[in-house]
Amino acid sequence: MEHGSFTDETKSTFSMADEDHTLANALRCTLNQDPRVTFCGYSIPHPSDNRVNIRVQTTGDPAREVLKDACQNLMVVCQHVRNTFDKAVLDFNLTKPKEKPVGDINIK
Amino acid sequence: MSGKDKNLHNMSESESEQEGVDKEGIEWIMNLPDVPMKLPPHVELQRTRVECKADAPIHTDTIQYSGAFASMGFDNSLRLDNFRNNFKIEVIDLKEDDIEFDMIGIDPALANAFRRILISEVPTMAIEKVLFANNTSIVQDEVLAHRLGLVPIRVDPRLFKYSDKDAPNENNTIVFRLHACCERGKPRLTVTSKALTWLPNGSEFPLVSDKSVSNSKPKTYTSFSCSQNTLSKEFSNNPIGPKDSDIILARLGPGQEIELEAHAVKGMGKTHAKWSPVATAWYRMLPEVVLMEEIEDELAEELEKKCPVNVFDIEDIAGKKRATVARPRDCTLCRECIRGDAWEKRVALRRVKDHFIFKIESTGALPPEVLFTEAVKILEDKCERLIAELS
C-alpha cells in the first residue's frame, strides 16, 4: 500500500504487511545505493504488528518506480548469489568428494 | 558538517539528473582518465574495514548512500556488473548437516536477510497435534506433546503443502504412531524417538463422534485418499521418520503405558522454533590482523605468547626472530595482543566489512546447501510479490 501525494510522486511511504527487517533492510540497502534516491529509510511502527513502512524520496523519478527497480535489482543479486553458491558447492564436491554418510541410523 | 552534506547532496542530484537525461553521459564521465576511481587509502580503509581498537571498534557502519563520496568523484552506487565481478563464494567445509562457506563482496543487509530467512522462514515439517489414547506415564500429556514437537523429522518439506484450514490429508499431514508399554515386573523402559512409526495411510484412530456403523471404513482423524507411499518414490525407498532415533521422549515405570498418534504439519520457524530447519545459522566478518611494524626478537616472542588462539608464528631468518601473522582466520578479536603500552601501534586488528564466514547447521530435514538455496529463493519470492503489489 502506498501513502503519497497525487501532485508529487517523488516522495512516498510504502506500507507492507507481513514483512519485517529481512526484506525492509535489504531493500533500504539497495535503494540507498541508487543514485536517484535522496532519502530512504524504514520503520516498524509497532513490534506486534507484522508491518513495515519504507519511505522513499527521489530526485525526480516516481518513488514507486524506483522501489520497483530496487526489487528487480535485489532479485538479480539473489539469482547471482544462488548461481555462484551452486557452482561453489559443485566445485567443492568435485575437488573433495563428500565423505560417505555414516550409516543412517533410521534405516535398518 | 551540514554545509558539506549539502554539497554532497547537490552533486549527487546533478549526477543523477545527467544520468536521467543521457544514460551515456555519466558512463562517459566515469570513464575519463582523470576521474579518481579509487578513494584515498585512509578513506578506503574506513569504508572496507572495521578497526578494533583497544577500547572499542571504530568505523563500524557500512556506507550505503550512493553519493557518499561524490565530492571525491567516487561513485558509491550499486552497479550490478561490478557486483557480479566482485562477488565470490568459497565452500570451506561441507558435511552431512553442516556447511561453512565464505561469502565475499555482499552487503551485510543481504547476508543478514539470508540468515534471518534460514532461521525463521524456511519451512519444515514438525509434529503439531498429538492425540493421546492412553498416557499413564509420569510425563504429562502437554509436556510429552511439546517434546514430540521438537523432534526433527527427516522429510523434504517441499513435497508437502501448508494445511491452513484444509482437512488433514495425504498432502499436508504425516502421521506417526507411538505405542510403548512397560510390563509389570520388568525394569524401567526408556522410550526414544525410534518408537515413532510412520503411518503412510494416515490416522488409525476412529472419530468418536462418527456413529455411522454401516460404513465399511470408519472415519478417522485424517482423510487420506491414498497411501503416502505412492506419492513419491523417495518415501517408499526411504520411509519418513525422526532424523535421530535416540532422542529420549519419556521413561516408563512398570505398568505404565503410552499410546498416541502424532500429526506433523508444515510450518515456519517464526511461528514456533520447532519448524526452524537450522540449529543455528550465523556469520562473522573475516578478521584481519596486520603488523604495522617489524616485530622482532623478545617482542615477537611476547606477541606469540599473548595470543590465546595462536594467530602468530615466529619466523627465523638468519638468526633474527620475526613475528608473522599465520592464522588470522582463527582470531577472535579478543584484543589481548593490543593490550599494554604501545602494542596498539604495532598490531592492527580489523574486520573485513564485506567478507562473511557463514555457517549453517541443519537439523536434518534438508541438507545445508539446499537450505541456503531455498533461503535465497524465498527472498526472491518476497521481491516478486512486492513488485506484483506495486504494479
UniProtKB/TrEMBL annotation, chain A:
Similarity comment: family membership: Belongs to the archaeal Rpo11/eukaryotic RPB11/RPC19 RNA polymerase subunit family.
Primary location class: nucleus
Domain DNA-directed RNA polymerase RBP11-like dimerisation per the UniProt entry, residue ranges: 12-83
SUPFAM superfamilies: RBP11-like subunits of RNA polymerase
Compartments, record wording: Nucleus
Any one GO molecular-function label of the UniProt entry: DNA-directed RNA polymerase activity
GO biological process, one term: transcription elongation by RNA polymerase I
Name of the featured protein: DNA-directed RNA polymerases I and III subunit RPAC2
Species: Cucumis sativus (Cucumber)
Lineage, opening ranks: Eukaryota, Viridiplantae, Streptophyta, Embryophyta, Tracheophyta
Automatic annotation (TrEMBL), chain B:
Coiled coil: none
Organism, scientific name: Cucumis sativus (Cucumber)
CDD domains xrefs: RNAP_I_II_AC40
Family label: Belongs to the archaeal Rpo3/eukaryotic RPB3 RNA polymerase subunit family.
Gene Ontology CC entries for this record: RNA polymerase I complex; RNA polymerase III complex
Keyword line: DNA-directed RNA polymerase, Nucleus, Transcription
Ranges where the record places region Disordered: 1-21
Subcellular location: Nucleus
GO molecular function: DNA binding; DNA-directed RNA polymerase activity; protein dimerization activity
Record-given protein name: DNA-directed RNA polymerases I and III subunit RPAC1
Domain Ig-like: 157-236
